[in-house]
Amino acid sequence: MRKIYNISAVLMLALSGSTFSHADEFSSCVLKLQQQARTEGISPSVVDQVLGSVKYVPRVIELDRRQPEFTETFANYLNNRVTASRVSAGRALLAKHQKQLSQLTQQYGVPAQYLIAFWGLETNYGSYLGKMPILDSLATLACDQRRSRFFTKELFEALRLIEIHQIEHQAMLGSWAGAMGHTQFMPSAYRTYAIDGDGNGHTDLWNSVPDALASAANFLHGLGWQKNRRWGREVKLPENFSFENVGTEKRPLSQWAAMGVSTTTGAPLAELDIEAALLVPAGHKGPAFLVYKNFDVIMRWNRSYFYAISVGYLADRIKGAGVLHVAPPTDAPRLDVGRIRQLQEKLNALGFDAGEADGVLGSGTRQAIRAFQQANKLVADGYPDTLVFNALGLGSELAH
User: Fold this and answer.
1) pLDDT band per the 50, 70, 90 thresholds, residue 22
2) What is the rounded CA–CA span in Å between residue 12 and residue 259?
3) Is 351 buried (19+), middle (13-18) or exposed (0-12) by CB count in 10 A?
4) Could you tell me the CA-to-CA distances from 383 to 72, 95, 322 in Å, in that order?
5) Which of 74, 73, 70, 119 is nearest to 92 (CA)?
6) 67 Cβ partners below 8 Å, 6+ apart?
7) 58: Cβ–Cβ under 8 A, 6 or more apart, which residues?
8) Backbone phi and psi for residue 132, each to the nearest 5 degrees, phi listed first
9) pTM
């Protein structure tokens, strides 16, 4: 097998703490995957001819270690995805596909603007579906220790797609992580939720927009979308707000109102019997959001706060809403893998449990930051701003 290693991939793997997989190690892994695939009932021809021909792609591992949801600031992430041009294009497509979208909303309970927003976030409305061979990507990730079990399952689902839908494996192109089509379905989602939206008797998420939109509606419905409910909303926090309540724990709207949380105009929150969590993805200087059950549904599509907020915000803008009342600050330090890893190591050394120093800014790391902030009389919003880096003695090393 031809080696296509490069220096950036080697450096990224060194940062992540993973071992580099040589050709013979990958070949051995593929043999094991073939044995497992046979025991799971995948046809011998697909196992031998298709799975037996996969290639290792170091670029996939490199991209896995620097996903933008975990390495970009919220301002960069949001501003690069919810743009004026994307909002304008989304509104035009909302009108163009109005008939089908109305039918899908009636059948599945998912408002049209969300379907368009997912389409916009995933592939910029089909302008870029990805060019990486899906099976090579999935096999590469299945043979990587970080999430081997998950990607092995997705690899086998992709092989079953070839059997069931008679998809030519050479035509299965998509993202580095194995997502496919206009709405970037992973193979398991494709197998479970992809449906025929144009009535031609076939399901094709690469070449049929009606199939992609119908499948997205079916997927969100299957994930538990609540009809007639929003994803969330931007809110206004009172001065001297206690940020210890920020996070994924949901509380009744009445409790948030009692804490002084209001709409962005200062009006009282609606008196509805629903629960919400409060998120401040850019820290206390940025926008605050109350998020509801449908936010959790979006998170099941992509487990990133940044992504879920961007989908909801883009949907609101497509429907006619204005820009955020509080713009996310653009002067925050960049959160690359090396910086977050140093942050985690320092927090752990000081007794603030950030978990494994993996360079990913997850919920455990944010909780450790919040505890450190409280101990050092900083605003305890769980956000790694410049004050946190400086207080940890990492400011000069991590200047941006």
Assistant:
1) low
2) 44
3) exposed
4) 13, 39, 26
5) 119
6) none
7) 4, 5, 6, 9, 20, 140
8) -90, 135
9) 0.88
Q: Contact at 8 Å (CB) between 384 and 361? A: yes
Residue 6 above 50 pLDDT? no
d(CA 282, CA 72): 11
Q: What is the DSSP letter of 306?
A: H
Angle of helix 148-165 relative to helix 134-142, nearest 10 degrees, comes to 150
Mean pLDDT of the chain: 90
384 near 340, Cβ under 8 Å? yes
Average pLDDT over residues 149-155: 97
**H, E, C per residue of 204-266:** CCCCCHHHHHHHHHHHHHHCCCCCCCCCEEEEECCCCCCHHHCCCCCEEHHHHHHCCCEECCC
Two tokens, residue 26 = 């990958």
Q: What is the CA 113 to chain-centroid distance, rounded?
A: 19
Q: Specify the pLDDT at position 362.
A: 81
Give the residue among 90, 100, 94 at the shortest CA–CA distance from 122. Answer: 90
Q: Any idea of the CA torsion for 250, 256, 258, 263, to the nearest 10 degrees?
A: -160
CA angle centred on 362, ends 241 and 333, rounded to 5°: 70
Residue type, 53: S
Domains of the chain: 1-66+132-174 (1.10.8), 68-129+180-328 (1.10.530.10), 337-391 (no CATH)
Q: Helix 84-96 crosses helix 112-123 at what angle (to 10 degrees)? A: 130
**CA–CA gap between residue 178 and residue 18 (Å, rounded):** 20
Q: Is 275 helix (H, G, I), strand (E, B) or coil?
A: strand
| pLDDT tens-place string over residues 34-62 | 999 999 999 999 999 999 999 999 999 88
